[in-house]
Amino acid sequence: DFDPPQDEEVKARLVQRADDKEENVRPRLETYEKYTALLEDKYKDVLKKVDGTGPKNAVFERVKDALQVQEKKIKRMSINEFVERAEEVYESSVRNNADVDWSGQAGLDKLTLGQSTWGDVQDRPLLAAGDFAALLLFAYIGRASHNENTNLISALETAAPFLLGWFVAAPKLSAYTAMATESWKDVASFLLRAWAVSILLGLGVRSLTTSRVPPTPFIVISLVMTLALLGAWRALYFKVRGPQMQEGRKGTVFEYFEMLSTLLKGW
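Structure (tokenized):
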């Protein structure tokens, strides 16, 4: 029950919330107790209860002691267990193996679906790196065909407007979502719309930085070459990686070695 102090000055400064009533608080407590009980039962083997009463330093020492005891109980994976589990995954080549939960242990968590934002790029670094390399190769070929300097800095300067256009527009056009490489049809359709906007944007940026509109042959060649290189890279990516969202799909050789290296680091 609401029990305000007797001091009138203090009482005048207190406010009782509209939902601070028994009929509102009781269901909250019941929900809390219900789900707390479920968690306690699920994690009873590792759960440690610490008395939270007393000075903060004393409570801290109790928490620290509990954690140290629990740390000593953590079982390290033996070499034999590691080899057996690695062989099992390799032989079955099925990512969603019901008997072995590799989630979080071997870098084999489900692919993030993506939200058509720039944040999708960091979820698919390999795909983004290949796109970057394809546009850089386009610039290198262009400079080489005109007998211009082909060192890395020069190629980057030529590729910069197209790289900017690509990484500004392509993520917003879903080019780095999971669906963008889920089938051959998806690879083509997602690439085409991202390429059409991004490369035209890159040509626009180039026009602004050079203060002149590129000649028509350059525009045509840029469109054709970037589509060919980006398309070749994304086709290779899909060929090697395969669809990422299918249930029970088979893992690739690259994913096996990725899993193996991550397990070694964890072990």
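The chain is about 65% helix and 0% strand. Residues 121 and 176 are 6 Å apart (CA to CA).
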